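#onboarding

Welcome to the new folks! Below is a worked example of what a typical request in this channel looks like: someone posts a single protein sequence, and someone else replies with the predicted structure as tokens. Don't worry about understanding the tokens yet, we'll cover that in week two.

Example request:
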Amino acid sequence: MLLNLGDFREDYNRDELLESQAEKDPFQQFARWFKTAVQAEIPEPNAMVLATSTTSGRPSARVVLLKEVESESFVFYTNYESRKGQEMAENPHAALVFNWLELHRQIRVEGLIEKVPATMSTEYFQSRPKGSQIGAWASPQSQVIPRREILEEQVRELNAEYSDAEKLPRPEHWGGYRLRPHTVEFWQGRTSRLHDRLLYTLAGPGAWVISRLAP
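Example response:
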């Protein structure tokens, strides 16, 4: 055995999640919990695991940053030619996980992916720090490169080319996605591992059914 982790235990006793207290809409419930995470000064509370898969069911996951919550979707941005971009193009089914350990809370989101309009991607891209804009141009994300110096040289060349510009044009291979959920689960840790789990299931446009799941 390389590592024995059986003694790592955490007693969850911070809060509860009851149907009588929950919002009727999962986006409102998310906003409430996110505000609490910000107030608790959790580092990067908008960090989320994005899980995608190929059409054959081979999964992959990584942490990305949520950038906007709309009335019916969660929005994030990335390189369209990355592994996740290619998988989302093949298979639009995806999942998100927010894990706020300090609050003993987790949110799971499952739904369908679509690209945001190009104008929306451009507006967000040009609002980023200039260094991040240059990085998006310089990096062939998820591709094998022989050494880091190639990226650094690309960055130097782009800095020279756009030395007088505050904003760069958006690369065609970079932009936003929105995930439109059909289920959202809120998990609150409780004592003795009898956790609270409320599942919101989309029953129609703007209509959600709330169910309690056994822990």
